[in-house]
TrEMBL record:
PPR repeats lie at residues 190-224, 290-320, 390-424, 489-519. This is DYW domain-containing protein. Residues 704-797 form the DYW domain. Pfam families: DYW_deaminase (PF14432), Eplus_motif (PF20430), PPR (PF01535). It comes from Rotaria magnacalcarata. It comes from the Eukaryota. InterPro entries: DYW_dom (IPR032867), E2_motif (IPR046849), PPR_At4g14850-like_plant (IPR046960), PPR_rpt (IPR002885), TPR-like_helical_dom_sf (IPR011990). GO terms for molecular function: RNA binding; zinc ion binding.
Length: 798
C-alpha cells in the first residue's frame, strides 16, 4: 500500500483497500485517505471516514489526514468541524488547516487561527502563516508577519522553505531592504531562494536588480528561474534586457518549451521587445493553449498597435473567455474604435455574464471602451452601477469626459472623489489640468491646481501647466513655468509658442521659435509660430518662416493659407492650394481656411466659388459642409442679402440637416462654473440678466455703438429686433450675469465654443471701457484681452 502511494498509483492503492478491507488497520486507512486527497475523490473519502472506528478517529495522524482530505475537496465546514472537536491539537493539524485555508483562497482565516494557537509551532506552520500574510498584505497581517519573523531564533534559517516564504512575504510587503538582509544571512542558497529574491525584485519594479542577481547565480537556471528572468527582461525591455532575454531563451533546454507558464512569459517578453514574429512562432508551437497564452498574445498585439490581430485571435479562442481575456478584447476594441471594433465590443458586452460588475478591472475596461466609442451614456450607466469605486474607475471617466470636451463633468467627478476620500493619482491630476485647459478660466485653474498634488518637477506636468495657463489667458504664469525649466523639450517650446499665439503675442512667439535648436523643431513648432503670425497680422514674418521650412505637411500649408486669407491675400492662398494638389489629394481644411477669410473680408464671389468646390470635392463631409454653408450664409448676411441667406439656409436643411452648432459660453462666479446658451432664459436670474443687458445696451448706444445687422445670420422672429438678436449672444449673457453680482467685478473671464462675432467684439471693447472692467474672452480661435482703454489684444485680427 505504501509503495503504491509513493509511486503515485493512488487508484490502485484504493482498489487494494477494497479487496483487503477486512484486514485494514489504522495505518492502511490513513494511507487510503491520502490517496483520496490526491485524487480529490470526495465520495470514497467519505466512505472511509464513515468506516473508521472511534479509536481511529482519536488517532492524531488520521485526524490530520481527514482535515487535509476535506480541505482538498473544498468541504471547509467539515474540516473545521473535525478540527474544532480535537482536544489535543498538534502543529501538524494547524499546518493542515493553514494549508487548506490558503489553497481555498481564505488566507484571512489563517491569521485568525494563528492568533488562537496556544502550542509550540513548527516551521511548516510558520511557512503557511508567511504565505497567508504575503497574500493579504494589509496593515494587520504585515504586523503579524514582521512580529513573527522577529521572534524566530536563528536556527530557523536552516529551513530553506521557511526562509524562502519569509523573503517572499517581505517582498510582498515592499520591505525590500529587510528581504535583502535576510537573503545575505543564508549561507547555502538554493535556486528557490534566488527565485524568491528575483521575483520580489520584479514585483517591486526593481527588475534591474533581478537581472544583476541572476548573473551571480552559478547554477543552471530551472524553468521557474527562466520564467522570472523573462518577466524581468519584459518589464525593462532595454538593450541589456533584450540581449539577456534572447540569450537565456536560446540556451535553455528544448524541454522547457513544454512548460506553458514559461512559454507564455517568453511570448510576453518577445511582445514587449516588439518581436512579434518570434512571439507568434512560439505561440504556434503550443499544443494545448490556455487562456493565459491567448491573453499574452492578445495583450502583446494591443501593446504593439496591432489590435486588429488581437480581435482576430479572440474570435478563434475555443474555450470560454476569462475576465482577463474580456478586459484585453475591450481594450483592443477601444484602441481601434472602428466599425468592426464597435460591433464586436457591443456584441461581447451584450453576451457578458451578469457578474461582470464584481470585477472592477473588467468593468472599467468596458467603460473605457464605450467612452472611446462616444457612447457616454452607457459608460455613465455602468459607472453608476459600481458599488465600490476606486481612483481607477474615476480616472477612466475623467479621461473620457476630457476627450469628449466635457470638462465640467471632469470637475464634478473630482468633487465626488474628494467626498469619498479617494486618492487623486498623478494621471488624474494631469487629466484635471487638461480639463481646466478646456474650460480656460483662470480662477477655475487656480482653484484646481491648489487642491491637487502635482509633481511639478516632471516635464510632462510642466508642459500641461504651460498649456493650461496659456489657454486661460495667464501668459505670465505660463512664462514663469517655462523659464524654470533648464532643459525644455520640443513639447515645452511648442506649448509656450502656442500660448503666445493664442494671446496675440506674435513677436514673442517668433523670438522663442528662433531659439529652438533646429535639430529638434518639428511640425507642431512650425504650425504654432505660423498661427501666431496669423493672429497678429505678421504676414511678412510668416512668409519668411514658411519659405525656410523644408518639409511642408498639409497642416503647415493650411496654417499658411489661413494666414494669407486673414490678410485678404487670396491669390497667394489659392496658389498654395494649387501647388499642394499637384502631388496630393485635396485637403478640406485648406478650403475652409480660405472660405473663413473670404467671409471676414465679405468676398462673396470667392465664398461661392470655394463653397461649390467643397461640395464637389468633399460630398460626404457633412459636418464640414454645414459649417461652410454657415460661413457662406454669413457672407451674404454681411452684405444685407437676406433672400440669399434664407435660400442657403433652406438648401442646407434639405441637403445636410439642421446640425448647426449652437453658441455656448461659460463663466465663473463665486466659484461656480455657469453655462449660457444663445438667447438662454433657463437661468433662475434670467430676468435680472436681461434687465442688465438692457442697461448695457443703453450705455453702448450712448457711447456711439450701432448694432451691426450683418452679424445677424438668421431670419428675425416676429418679436425680435436686430439689437435683441445680437444682445442674446451667449457671451453677452455671461457678461451681464457677471455685472449683476455684488460687488460689481473689475475682471470677467468667459470661454466661448464659437468665434466671437464682429458686433460682440466691438461691443465688448466698449463695455470694458465704460465699466472699467478687464474682460477676457476665449473663443474658438484665440483669446481676446479687452482692456479698460477700449482696446483688444487681437488688434482686430480675428
Amino acid at each position: 500500500m505504501k509503495k503504491l502511494i509513493e509511486s503515485q498509483q493512488y487508484r490502485q492503492a484504493l482498489d487494494l483497500v477494497n479487496r483487503q478491507r477486512s484486514i485494514c488497520d489504522q495505518i492502511t486507512f490513513n494511507l487510503a485517505l491520502k490517496a483520496c486527497t490526491k485524487l480529490n475523490d470526495y465520495q470514497y473519502g467519505i466512505r472511509i471516514h464513515q468506516q473508521l472506528s472511534l479509536e481511529a478517529l482519536e488517532n492524531p495522524f488520521i485526524q490530520t489526514s481527514l482535515i487535509h482530505f476535506y480541505m482538498q475537496c473544498h468541504d471547509i465546514d467539515q474540516a473545521h468541524k473535525i478540527f474544532s472537536t480535537i482536544k489535543n491539537k498538534t502543529a501538524s493539524m494547524y499546518g493542515a488547516m493553514f494549508k487548506g485555508y490558503i489553497s481555498n483562497n481564505m488566507p484571512e482565516k489563517v491569521t485568525e487561527l494563528f492568533e488562537k494557537i496556544s502550542i509550540e509551532i513548527n516551521e511548516v506552520v510558520i511557512t503557511m502563516l508567511f504565505n497567508a500574510c504575503a497574500k493579504l498584505c494589509n496593515s494587520h497581517t504585515i504586523k503579524i508577519g514582521r512580529d513573527t519573523l522577529n521572534r524566530l531564533p536563528t536556527s530557523f534559517l536552516r529551513h530553506s522553505i521557511l526562509v524562502n516564504s519569509a523573503i517572499d512575504m517581505l517582498m510582498k510587503f515592499g520591505d525590500v531592504n529587510r528581504a535583502e538582509v535576510l537573503f545575505e544571512k543564508i549561507k547555502k542558497k538554493d535556486i528557490v531562494t534566488y527565485g524568491a529574491m528575483m521575483q520580489g525584485y520584479v514585483t517591486n519594479n526593481l527588475s534591474e536588480k533581478a537581472l544583476d542577481l541572476f548573473e551571480k547565480i552559478s547554477m543552471k537556471p530551472n524553468e521557474v528561474l527562466s520564467t522570472i528572468v523573462f518577466n524581468a527582461c519584459a518589464s525593462l525591455s532595454n538593450e541589456k534586457a533584450v540581449q539577456l532575454g534572447k540569450k537565456i531563451f536560446d540556451e535553455m533546454p528544448k524541454g522547457y518549451l513544454n512548460n506553458i507558464v514559461l512559454v507564455t512569459s517568453a511570448i510576453d517578453m518577445f511582445m514587449k521587445f516588439g518581436e512579434i514574429e518570434s512571439a507568434e512562432y512560439l505561440f504556434s508551437q503550443i499544443k494545448q493553449k490556455n487562456s493565459y497564452s491567448y491573453g499574452a498574445m492578445m495583450q502583446g498585439y494591443v501593446k504593439n498597435n496591432l489590435s486588429e490581430k488581437a480581435l482576430d485571435l479572440f474570435e478563434k479562442i475555443p474555450m470560454k473567455p476569462t475576465d482577463v481575456l474580456y478586459t484585453i478584447v475591450y481594450n483592443a476594441c477601444a484602441s481601434l474604435s472602428n466599425e468592426k471594433a464597435v460591433q464586436l465590443g457591443k456584441k461581447i458586452f451584450d453576451e457578458m455574464p451578469k457578474g461582470y460588475l464584481d470585477n472592477i478591472v473588467l468593468v472599467t475596461s468596458v467603460m473605457h471602451m464605450f467612452m472611446k466609442f462616444g457612447e457616454i451614456e452607457i459608460a455613465e450607466d455602468l459607472f453608476s452601477k459600481i458599488k465600490q469605486h476606486s481612483p481607477y474607475t474615476y480616472g477612466v471617466m475623467i479621461h473620457g469626459y476630457k476627450t469628449h470636451q466635457e470638462p465640467q463633468k471632469c470637475l464634478s467627478l473630482f468633487e465626488q472623489m474628494k467626498k469619498e476620500n479617494l486618492t487623486i493619482d498623478e494621471a488624474i491630476c494631469v487629466a484635471l489640468v487638461g480639463a481646466c485647459s478646456q474650460i480656460g478660466i483662470r480662477s477655475i485653474c487656480q482653484n484646481i491646481v491648489r487642491q491637487i498634488a502635482l509633481p511639478q518637477s516632471k516635464i510632462y506636468v510642466q508642459n500641461a501647466l504651460i498649456d493650461m495657463w496659456g489657454k486661460s489667458g495667464d501668459i505670465d504664469q505660463a512664462k514663469q513655468i517655462f523659464q524654470s525649466i533648464s532643459q525644455p523639450e520640443i513639447i515645452t517650446y511648442n506649448s509656450m509658442i502656442n500660448a503666445y499665439a493664442r494671446n496675440g503675442m506674435g513677436y514673442e512667439a517668433i523670438n522663442l521659435y528662433n531659439k529652438i535648436p533646429e535639430n529638434i523643431r518639428d511640425k507642431i513648432s512650425h504650425i504654432c509660430v505660423l498661427n501666431a503670425c496669423s493672429h497678429s497680422g505678421l504676414i511678412d514674418q510668416a512668409q519668411m518662416i514658411f519659405n525656410k521650412i523644408d518639409k511642408k505637411s498639409e497642416e503647415i500649408v493650411t496654417t499658411m493659407i489661413d494666414c494669407l486669407s486673414r490678410m485678404a491675400m487670396f491669390d497667394q492662398a489659392q496658389q498654395l492650394i494649387d501647388d499642394y494638389e499637384k502631388s496630393n489629394s485635396p485637403y478640406l481644411i485648406m478650403y475652409s481656411a480660405i472660405l473663413s477669410g473670404a467671409r471676414n473680408h465679405r468676398h462673396i464671389a470667392l465664398s461661392e466659388e470655394i463653397f461649390n468646390q467643397m461640395r464637389l470635392l468633399f460630398p460626404n463631409e457633412k459636418s464640414a459642409l454645414i459649417s461652410a454653408s454657415v460661413l457662406l450664409s454669413n457672407t451674404y448676411s454681411s452684405l444685407g442679402n437676406d433672400q440669399q441667406v434664407e435660400a442657403i439656409r433652406m438648401d442646407r436643411i434639405k441637403e445636410l440637416g439642421k446640425n448647426v452648432k449652437v453658441g455656448v459660453s461659460w463663466t465663473e462666479v463665486n466659484g461656480q462654473l455657469v453655462r449660457f446658451q444663445a438667447h438662454d432664459r433657463s437661468h433662475p436670474q434670467s430676468d435680472k440678466i436681461y434687465a442688465e443687458l438692457e442697461r448695457l445696451s443703453n450705455e453702448l448706444r450712448e457711447h456711439g455703438h450701432e448694432y451691426d445687422s450683418t452679424w445677424v445670420t438668421r431670419p428675425l422672429k416676429t418679436e425680435e429686433t436686430i439689437e435683441s438678436a445680437l444682445c442674446g449672444h451667449s457671451e453677452k449673457l455671461a457678461i451681464a450675469f457677471n455685472f449683476i453680482q455684488y460687488p460689481r467685478p473689475s475682471f470677467i473671464q468667459i470661454t466661448k465654443n464659437l468665434r466671437v462675432c464682429g458686433d460682440c467684439h466691438r461691443a465688448t471693447k466698449l463695455i470694458a471701457k465704460i465699466r472699467q472692467c478687464e474682460i477676457i474672452v476665449r473663443d474658438a480661435n484665440r483669446i481676446h484681452h479687452f482692456h479698460t482703454n477700449g482696446q483688444c489684444s487681437c488688434q482686430d485680427h480675428f
